[in-house]
Specification:
The protein has a single domain (5-106), classed as Roll (SH3 type barrels), CATH 2.30.30. Helix content is 11%, strand content 31%. The chain has one helix spanning 95-106, and strands spanning 5-8, 19-22, 33-41, 61-64, 67-71, 77-80, 87-90. Strands 1, 2, 3, 4, 5, 6 and 7 form a seven-stranded antiparallel β-sheet that branches. The chain is globular. The relative contact order is 0.26.
């Protein structure tokens, strides 16, 4: 399961979060779990209803399978690889954006 592959979400929140993106390094492919970040439907975010993503660096927006989604790094989670749904694309071209959002989540930066 390559880093930045997008998978269908199989949990009960899949209406609001149709996809997750794998952010875990391929160095850990032998481990039974994957670290993923949810891709939330853009129309489910309050600011998105007004036509803007709250912080495009922290919440980059993408279109996957004709669904507009936003990365939600505050919801990063580890899930069993066996629970991931089918592969639904790749965001490898946006890897720097995704890592930048995660870095912003974990860094000691202050505003």
């Amino acid at each position: 399961m390559p880093q930045f592959d997008v998978h269908r979400n199989t949990d009960p929140h899949r209406d609001a979060i149709p996809f997750v993106v794998i952010v875990q390094s391929s160095l850990f492919d032998d481990y039974r779990r994957r670290v993923v970040v949810p891709l939330v439907r853009q129309d489910r975010l309050g600011a998105a209803r007004r036509g803007a993503v709250p912080d495009p660096c922290f919440n980059p927006a993408f279109t996957n399978e004709d669904v507009d989604v936003v990365l939600h790094p505050l919801e990063i989670v580890s899930v069993p690889a066996a629970q991931l749904g089918g592969r639904a694309g790749s965001l490898s071209d946006a890897g720097d954006q995704i890592i930048g959002a995660i870095d912003q989540t974990l860094s000691r930066a202050r505003r």
